[in-house]
UniProtKB/TrEMBL annotation:
UniProt organism field: Corynebacterium nasicanis
Regions crossing the membrane: 14-34, 46-64, 130-152, 209-229
Keyword entries, A-Z: Membrane, Transmembrane, Transmembrane helix
Protein's recorded name: TIGR02206 family membrane protein
Pfam families: TMEM164
Highest taxon listed in the record's lineage: Bacteria
InterPro entries with a match to the protein in the record: CHP02206_TP0381 (IPR011737)
Record PROSITE patterns: PROKAR_LIPOPROTEIN
Amino acid sequence: MTYTWMRPYSPEHLAVLVTGVLACGVLVVAARRVAGTPWEVRARQITGWVLMVLAGAWLVFTLWPGNLHITEGLPFHLCDWLRYITAYGLISGDERAWAVTYYWGILLNPQAIVTPYLPYVHSPAWVQFAGYWFFHLVALIVPLVMVFGFGWRPTWKDFRFVASVSPAWMAVAMTANKVTGGNYGFFSHRPPTPSIIDLFYRWGMKRHYWILEVSLIALVWTGVMTWPWERARR
């Protein structure tokens, strides 16, 4: 099957990036205004339910018989899991879900924003475009709002929890790749569009590049995304 991709850094890509930056700034300011008041919980829960409904609708859209694409459209990418975890965390206030949203949403998810791989395998294409960008931007904006708007801070306990559950997603994605022949999580090979994985290929990590990627992620999670907050707390 042949299909087209969205061209990275095309006018529509740049427009989405600008929109995301503006939305993030507005929502952080709005969150600061309601932080610590009863409106904070209401805002979180309403947002969470809206996201949960939209995520369910998106799942139906991608798995609809006319749209089903085994190697590209099954819910095994990280963001597929993240949209439900984000919604659940906002609804329930479960800080374990917030932690996953923080570590996955701020570091891993932006790879799909800065270097997007968007093959138009579903119809209509504009719905896939809207869904792709909405959910990826939400996955980044929500944890930024939680930290810089509502004042939530990650701890070493949060880090240990996310580090312990992340391999579960990796195992599921790799298994799905073997069964379907897909490239979920980009563990089988690099995407056809430019990405950070290209650097690992240049360094000679063509077969096991994901090992280096996981190591770098662990370094950033500890040294940049956890330790400074713990140091400030002490």
